[in-house]
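[job 4471] stage=fold_predict status=RUNNING
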Amino acid sequence: MSTAITLKQINKLAIPALISGVSEPILSLTDAAIIGNMEQNATTSLAAVGIVTTFLSMLIWVLGQTRSAISSIISQYLGAGNVEAVKNLPAQAIFVITTLSLVIIAITYPLASPIFKLYNASGDILNYSVDYYQIRVFGFPFTLFTIAVFGTFRGLQNTYFPMLIAISGALANIILDVVLVYGINGFIPAMHIKGAAYASVIAQLIMALLSAYYLLKKTDIPLIAKLPFNPEMKRFALMILNLFIRTIALNIALYFGTSFATKYGESYIAAYTIAINLWFLGAFLIDGYASAGNILSGKLFGAKDYKNLLELSNKLIKYGIFVGLFIGVIGAVFYYPLGNLFSNDEAVLTEFYSVFWIVLAMQPLCALAFIFDGVFKGLGKMKYLRNVLLFSTIVIFVPVIFWVDRLDYKLYGIFIAFTLWMIARGLPLIIKFRKTFIPLAQNT
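[job 4471] inference complete, writing structure tokens
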């Protein structure tokens, strides 16, 4: 690629990726909003959704790394002008990852109660968590299938079709949530928290079917896996292994955040559920630009165009800070309406409002960390990403959250730990990138 990357090119990839990226948090946020406003057991149900969402996010993030690995490999081959050599890789990757998801369902379904006891859930919260999870987990293979197809499209520099798929899934989930949670008098009984779980599974199935349709209709990438394995499957597996370890470290942080919030009491975990899901939404909004960084950096790296790769990073830093500030400002403007959207419990809202400002203030820091996560994934530098997250979790987050717990800071402490964690994640990536590619750009 001989010409500089423009804002128009970045936005052409980033904006559809931004829209498609919010599909998963919208599924959980819709569940939280609908359930949080039920007339009966709303706070208990909301707490259960928060616990299950944290665990499901862990599973999705651990196995959903296929998107980044597939996107990285395909975009690099596209930049080198040889995408035909990896055309059979996506089908093989999809087969492996969806098979693994079935194994995880078989293991976790009967162990749901012990799993959520580890999150300090008990009584009705535990019962609701088990009910919700044992339905929602069946959407897991559909989600992983969709994520892998999205990675294929991203490697081909296309975020438009994933956007269409994600919009369809989000709309289906919203409609089904209202219908199945509250019911339709005389036609469909109100299923409450179970209805929200069924709505999510159906929406995930719709997205998987649309993903298969668009991939087969709009590309020449096959979906039937055939042997022998593509030579890049070894590199793909190593990427997945490093990302797997990295994501475990990420979910250690999320586990401790959820576990401590649950320990503090029902109103605290409900407030934490609202705050952390809005944080996830902000992360996935920023992920649009992280995806553009992933897609474009892989292609530029494959083409050995280091000058434009460095220029891309400079632009992404500016755009990332702007997007993070924009999200923070929007959140500040709608500070109180956002809380009321998810709960009408005064105790829950008091705790939520007391910490939501921290979530908003950390958005620019999150933007830089997430964007350079995307860039390094595009470069295929998964080992360095693994090491950075292990350091930020084990050396920074875990000691801090135990320290602030002893100080009895409660939710304040949890989100202070998350803020320091994001700084420790983002800063080393920026430094490493510039040290590596400034000399390469100067020598070309």
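[job 4471] summary: Residues 266-302 form the longest helix (37 residues).
[job 4471] exit 0
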